Amino acid sequence: MKDFLFVYKADYTGMQERTAEEGQAMMKRWMDWLEGIANQNKLIDKGNRLYDSGRIVKGNGIVTNGPYMEIKESIGGYSLIKAESYDEAVEFAKGCPVLLTGGNVEVREIAPM
């Protein structure tokens, strides 16, 4: 069994345009999808959403604001799952609700340290 990171990317600027009911319906889709993975005993951590603000730390102590809002696609959150293979992890990702809004899921295998 291998561990994988799902990174959720989308144009999150449209999120504010949803009604409260639409937001609740989307959250239910996310929780149902994650519950489906958890029911197979393959969810390590449901993860969290990320704020759209942050800092970028570079060499020589340089710190800048970021990610920049002019970047259309941003990282909105993450989850950790376990799967037998990349193929199985990708199959889980295909059910992600972010795909319904034009977003995507980056699937990365975690290398143990």
Describe the structure.
The protein is of the alpha+beta class and 113 residues long. The chain has a single domain (2-109), classed as Dimeric alpha+beta barrel (Alpha-Beta Plaits, 2-Layer Sandwich). 24% of the residues lie in helices and 34% in strands. It has two helices and six strands; from the N terminus they run E-H-E-E-E-E-H-E. The strands form two sheets. Strands 2-5-1-6 form a four-stranded antiparallel beta sheet. It starts with a strand and ends with a strand. The model has no long low-confidence stretch (mean pLDDT 89).
User: Treating each run of at least 4 consecutive H or I residues as one helix, how many helices?
Assistant: 2
CATH architecture: 2-Layer Sandwich
What is the N-to-C order of secondary-structure elements (H for helix, E for strand)?
Answer: EHEEEEHE
| Number of beta-strand segments | 6
CATH homology-level superfamily = Dimeric alpha+beta barrel
Low-confidence stretches: none
Class from helix and strand fractions: alpha+beta
Whole-number tally of structural domains: 1
CATH topology value? Alpha-Beta Plaits
Residue-averaged pLDDT, rounded?
89
Distance between the termini: 16 Å
Highest CATH level, the class? Alpha Beta
Helix fraction by DSSP (H/I, runs of at least 4): 10-25%
Strand content: 25-35%
Query: In one word, what is the shape?
Result: flat
Gyration radius from CA atoms, angstroms: 16 Å
* Biggest sheet details: 4 strands, antiparallel
